[in-house]
Amino acid sequence: MAEDAQAAPEMSLSGDLPGVPDGFQRLWTPHRMVYIQAGAEAMHEDCPFCAAAHKSDEDGLIVHRGTSAYALLNLFPYNSGHLLVCPYRHVATYDQATDEEVAEIASITQHAMKVLRDVSNCDGFNIGMNQGRVAGAGVDEHLHQHIVPRWATDANFFPIIARTKALPQLLGEVRQAVADAW
Questions:
Q1: Is the pLDDT of residue 82 over 90?
Q2: pLDDT value, residue 163
Q3: What's the whole-number mean pLDDT along residues 10-29?
Q4: What pLDDT, on a 0 to 100 scale, did the predictor assign at position 80?
Q5: What's the whole-number mean pLDDT along residues 6-27?
Q6: What is the domain class of 28-181 according to CATH?
Q7: Contacts of 93 (CB under 8 A, 6+ apart)
Q8: Does residue 101 contact residue 107 with C-beta atoms inside 8 Å?
Q9: Distance between CA 158 and CA 161 in Å, rounded?
Q10: Which active-site residues does the annotation give?
Q11: C-alpha to C-alpha distance for 37 and 94, rounded to whole angstroms
């Protein structure tokens, strides 16, 4: 009898029963379907930053609109709260931006850092621009600056071994929190 109590329970295939755990962890990333369904070429045919500026704040993931530039969440974030700052004008590189655009991009970036610290208690930031495809720009036709919040505890094995990022909040929740704090 004691041996029977310690024996492993009989396991059935998870496909046999709905809702039965199968031992796999799942990372749900439904926001990436836009990219998967459109394909990489469609993202470049229709500039996503020009399109976002003409959408509602919610649909465009916009957290702040300025005079010549605006801030929005990255649709494919590295971390929760990953923001992009873009001029409204469709220019490819920083040297093509006007003095007004450069000043507003800098001002929005400073304010975004304060807001992200308040909203997410982050410990630091990665801030940068990839200029041109060879430099790593995913959308190289429209200037954009990345603001990536970082935490002392955000380094783990997922990105290194599994090439996976775990994001604890949905984009809509993050957008609302950042926009409300702006």
A1: yes
A2: 59
A3: 58
A4: 87
A5: 55
A6: alpha beta
A7: 131, 132, 143
A8: no
A9: 6
A10: 144
A11: 31
